[in-house]
Specification:
Elements: H1 2-16, H2 21-55, H3 64-195, E1 197-205, E2 209-213, E3 216-224, E4 229-236, E5 241-249, E6 253-257, E7 264-272, E8 276-284, H4 285-288
Helix pairs in contact: 1-3, 2-3
Length: about 300
């Protein structure tokens, strides 16, 4: 019975490894303790009965029932001893099987650990590879996004610069157009004033003073017939301003302005003789008929010129 149970336990352990070797050892130890205790009890009972018989001076031959009992007890002890020997043999077999089982369990455990390590390493390697691929893909995408963002920023910056340049150019062109319009208006006004002018011809001697028009007097102080140039000055009223004429050649316009804003006036010499000159004065029509309120003195300190020849 016990051998069959041990075999079944070993087969179950070998097939499925569903029990622990420590539990089997504990059960076997408990069984051996029980057997030893039973043998000790039987030995004690036998010894106690034998001592009791000697104490009462009884002879075993007088007690046939006791002899039979002792014989039966001896047989039982022999049977128990035989079982103990069988169990000892079974114990050796069990020990061998247990050793093999432990080795097999250790081998299976080590094999399982090795396989688990391999699988874990494979899983780890696969996860690392997947993580590396994912990281590379994300890095590539980030680089692409960054390059796209840089390109967009560059395009936006270039567009802003182009817009700013276009605005600056537009403002410059607008300012230029406005200046051109202003100059055109001024030229138109000057042209209108030039067109709306009256010519006053004159002839006069050297070292003489003559009122050419209202508020404009001319004095010729020097003539150069060879170079056809003259020197002198003009006196303007009511500006009370002296304009110096220096080396004015023929057909050269001496342009001057008055404070009233009536427009430009021109003095032109057409001929230079040894004793006098001839020429004309272009004046706005509003000033051509005015009468002078006086002429400058024949001599005096030179006054600073307000305008120069053009």
């Amino acid at each position: 019975m016990r051998s069959e149970r041990v075999d079944s336990l070993l087969k179950a352990g070998e097939s499925g490894n569903t029990f622990e070797t420590e539990q089997v050892r504990r059960r076997l130890a408990a069984l051996w303790v029980a057997v030893v205790a039973l043998a000790v009890v039987l030995s004690g009972v036998t010894a106690y009965g034998y001592l009791t018989l000697q104490k009462h001076n009884l002879q075993l031959s007088q007690l046939p029932g006791v002899q039979e009992t002792l014989a039966l007890a001896g047989q039982r002890l022999e049977a128990v001893e035989g079982k103990l020997q069988a169990w000892a043999a079974d114990w050796d077999t069990l020990q061998a099987r247990m050793t093999g089982l432990e080795r097999r369990v250790a081998y299976n455990r080590e094999l399982a650990r090795s396989e688990a390590r391999k699988q874990a390493a494979a899983v780890e390697e696969r996860l690392r590879a997947e993580a590396g691929e994912l990281a590379k893909a994300m890095d590539a995408r980030l680089v692409l996004l960054e390059s796209g963002a840089e390109a967009e920023r560059a395009r936006l910056g270039q567009l802003q610069e182009d817009v700013a340049a276009a605005r600056t150019e537009s403002r410059r062109e607008l300012a230029s157009v406005r200046e051109d319009l202003a100059r055109g208006d001024q030229r138109l006004e000057e042209l209108a004033r030039v067109i709306d002018r009256e010519r006053v011809d004159f002839e006069m001697d050297k070292n003489s003073t003559r009122e050419l028009a209202g508020g404009i007097s001319l004095r010729i102080t020097s003539t150069n017939v060879g170079q056809q140039k003259v020197k002198g000055w003009m006196w303007l009223l009511p500006d009370r301003k002296t304009l110096w004429v220096r080396d004015l050649g023929i057909q050269q316009a001496y342009v001057f302005y008055r404070r009233d804003g009536s427009g430009p006036s021109e003095l032109v010499i057409t001929s230079v003789q040894d004793g006098g000159v001839s020429g004309y004065l272009l004046l706005p029509r509003a000033l051509a008929g005015e009468v002078s309120s006086g002429a400058p003195p024949q001599s005096g300190a030179a006054q600073p010129a307000a305008d120069g020849a053009h």
